[in-house]
């Protein structure tokens, strides 16, 4: 994933699919936008929709990861 300076996910995919990843970093750090495969907008068009309709914070995310680690042991 690539994230812009506003915290928005602007690319999902393998970095090898980007023709010039270094240029993408420079563009995003300068506040610009990138385009191409993997940069399509998320259905719904906002972070809340992308997060399944809920706001997320780092504490919640880390708790979910820790809970998954316990379940994963059994898999």
Structure, explained:
Helices cover 40% and strands 7% of the residues. It is mainly alpha-helical and 75 residues long. It has one domain (2-74). Strands 1-2 form a two-stranded antiparallel sheet. A hairpin with a 5-residue loop joins strand 1 (2-3) and strand 2 (9-11). The longest helix is centred in the last third of the chain and has 17 residues, at 58-74. It is elongated and about 40 Å long. The chain starts with a strand and ends with a helix.
Number of strands: 2
Query: Into which percent range does the helicity of residues fall?
Result: 40-55%
Low-confidence stretches: 47-53
On the 0-100 scale, what is the average pLDDT?
79
Biggest beta sheet attributes: 2 strands, antiparallel
Element order, helices and strands? EEHHH
Provide a count of the helices.
Answer: 3
**Span between termini:** 26 Å
Tell me the structural class.
mainly alpha
Strand content: 5-15%
Q: Strand sequence of the main sheet, in spatial order? A: 1-2
As for the number of domains, it is 1
Tell me the overall shape.
Answer: elongated
Radius of gyration: 15 Å
């Amino acid at each position: 994933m690539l994230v812009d300076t506003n915290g928005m996910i602007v690319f999902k995919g393998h970095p090898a699919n980007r023709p010039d990843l270094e240029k993408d970093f420079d563009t995003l750090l300068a506040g610009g936008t990138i385009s191409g495969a993997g940069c399509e907008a998320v259905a719904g068009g906002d972070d809340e929709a992308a997060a399944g309709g809920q706001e997320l914070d780092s504490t919640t995310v880390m708790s979910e990861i820790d809970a998954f680690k316990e379940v994963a042991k059994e898999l």
